Automatic annotation (TrEMBL):
Family statement drawn from the similarity comment of this UniProt entry: Belongs to the UDP-N-acetylglucosamine 2-epimerase family.
Domain UDP-N-acetylglucosamine 2-epimerase residues, every copy: 24-367
Enzyme Commission identifier(s): 5.1.3.14
One MF annotation (Gene Ontology) recorded for this entry: UDP-N-acetylglucosamine 2-epimerase activity
Protein name from the UniProt record: UDP-N-acetylglucosamine 2-epimerase (non-hydrolyzing)
NCBIfam families reported in the protein's UniProt record: wecB
Gene name of the record: wecB
Signal sequence segment: none
Keywords: Isomerase
Species of provenance: Clostridium tanneri
Length: 382
C-alpha cells in the first residue's frame, strides 16, 4: 500500500474547529486521499467553521431537525454513513471527541469493518452521565477505535487502564491549538459593533458560556445569579455572555441577566470571533470542554462551571479551576481572580498542557506509520 483513503467525519462546531487543521494537514500529504463527510448535527454553527477554514465537504448528510433527539441523531447518522462507506470503501475513518456524530460514525465504520481513528481519545470523567451524553459517546467510540490519538499522557494512561494496546495509542497534543494558529489576530475588529465598544484594557472583561444539559434548570439559574453578583460587586468588570440559542438556556439567562449594566448578552459567535474575544478578555467562565484547552493557550484563566472535568491536566497545570455551580463558590473564586493580581498571574502564566500547534502533523505521521507507508516521522507530544 502506498496511499490510503481516509474519510474525516464531523457534525458540530466544536468538532469542526478541531478537525479543520487536520483536514488541511491530510490534504497536504501525497500519501493520503482525504474526503470530508459532515453530518450537520449542528447546521448553522458548523457552516461557519467550514467557511472560515475553506473546507468543501464531499458528503453532507444534513441530518439536523428541530428538537432532535439523541436517538434521532444516531439513527440518521448511521443510515447516512452506511451509504457513504459502501460507496467509498475507505481504509480509515477519522472521528473526533465525544459527540453523537462521533459515536455513530465509529459504529457505522465498525459495521463495515473499516478501521477507526479517534482524535482526542482517552478523556474521562468516569461518570457516564456527566457530561451527558459525551462521556459515554467517548468511551463507546474508544471501544470501536483502532487508532487512538490521545492529546496528553494522562489521556493515554486512561486508555491503557482500559486495556488498549500501547502500540495503538499516539500522544499528539490537541488539534484545537493548531486551529488557533489560523484564527487569532492581535489587531482584530469584531463584526459585532457591541463588542467593538468594550474597553478591553480599562475593564476586566469576563467571557462566559454555559449551556450544558447537566446545568439546565437550577444549574443555569445559579450561574446567572453568580454572574449578576460578580458584576454588581466589581465595578471594573464587564461581562460578555455568549448565550446558547436553546430556549431552555436563553430564557433563563434573559430573565436573570437581561438589562443589567455592563452585561452583554450576545448570540454565539463564529469561531474566529470567539477566539479573538477570548484573546482580548480577562478571564473565561464556562461549562464547555473545548474552552478549557483554548483559553489557557492565550494566557486566560478558566473557571469551569461544572463539578467534574474530563480535562484534569489543565486543573493540575493550574490554568483551570473547577468551581461547579454553587453561587457562593463561583462568586468567591471569581472575586479572588478579579481582585488579587498574584492569584490571577499564577493561573494566566501557567503552561498550557494541551499542545504546541503541531498535533495535526503528528496525527498524519502516526496514520502513515500505522499503515506502514512512512516510518519514523511520528514523534509523540510531551
Amino acid at each position: 500500500m502506498d496511499k490510503i483513503k481516509v474519510i474525516t467525519i464531523f457534525g458540530t462546531r466544536p468538532e469542526a474547529i478541531k478537525m479543520a487543521p487536520l483536514v488541511k494537514a491530510l490534504e497536504q500529504s501525497d500519501k493520503v486521499e482525504n474526503k470530508v463527510c459532515v453530518t450537520a448535527q449542528h447546521r448553522e454553527m458548523l457552516d461557519q467553521v467550514l467557511e472560515l477554514f475553506n473546507i468543501q465537504p464531499d458528503f453532507d448528510l444534513n441530518i439536523m431537525k428541530a428538537k432532535q433527539s439523541l436517538t434521532g441523531i444516531t439513527t440518521r447518522v448511521l443510515e447516512g454513513l452506511e451509504e457513504v462507506f459502501i460507496k467509498e470503501k475507505p481504509d480509515l475513518v477519522l472521528v473526533h471527541g465525544d459527540t453523537t456524530t462521533t459515536f455513530a460514525g465509529a459504529l457505522a465504520a465498525f459495521y463495515q469493518k473499516i478501521k477507526v481513528g479517534h482524535v482526542e481519545a482517552g478523556l474521562r470523567t468516569y461518570d457516564k452521565y456527566f457530561p451527558f451524553p459525551e462521556e459515554m459517546n467517548r468511551k463507546l467510540t474508544g471501544a470501536a477505535a483502532d487508532l487512538h490519538f490521545a492529546p496528553t499522557a494522562g489521556s493515554r494512561n486512561n486508555l491503557l487502564r482500559e486495556g488498549i494496546d500501547p502500540k495503538d495509542i499516539f500522544i499528539t497534543g490537541n488539534t484545537v491549538i493548531d486551529a488557533m494558529e489560523f484564527t487569532v489576530e492581535e489587531e482584530y475588529n469584531f463584526s459585532n459593533d457591541e463588542l467593538n465598544t468594550i474597553d478591553y484594557n480599562g475593564k476586566k472583561v469576563i467571557m462566559v458560556t454555559a449551556h450544558r444539559r447537566e446545568n439546565w434548570g437550577k444549574g443555569i439559574e445559579n450561574i446567572c445569579n453568580s454572574l449578576k453578583t460578580i458584576v454588581k460587586e466589581n465595578h471594573d468588570v464587564e461581562l460578555v455572555y455568549l448565550v446558547h440559542l436553546n430556549p431552555v438556556v436563553k430564557d433563563v439567562v434573559q430573565k436573570i441577566l437581561g438589562g443589567i449594566e455592563r452585561v452583554h448578552l450576545l448570540s454565539p459567535l463564529d469561531t474566529k470571533e470567539t477566539h479573538n474575544l477570548m484573546n482580548k478578555c480577562y478571564m473565561v467562565m464556562t461549562d464547555s470542554g473545548g474552552l478549557q484547552e483554548e483559553a489557557p493557550h492565550l494566557g486566560k484563566p478558566v473557571l469551569v462551571l461544572r463539578d467534574v472535568t474530563e480535562r484534569p491536566e489543565a486543573v493540575e497545570a493550574g490554568t483551570v479551576e473547577l468551581v461547579g455551580t454553587d453561587v457562593n463558590v463561583v462568586v468567591s473564586t471569581a472575586n479572588r481572580l478579579i481582585r488579587n493580581k498574584e492569584e490571577y498571574d499564577k493561573m494566566s502564566k501557567a503552561i498550557n498542557p494541551y499542545g504546541d500547534g503541531k498535533a495535526s502533523e503528528r496525527i498524519v505521521a502516526a496514520i502513515l506509520e500505522y499503515f506502514n507507508i512512512e516510518k519514523g516521522k511520528y514523534k509523540q507530544f510531551s
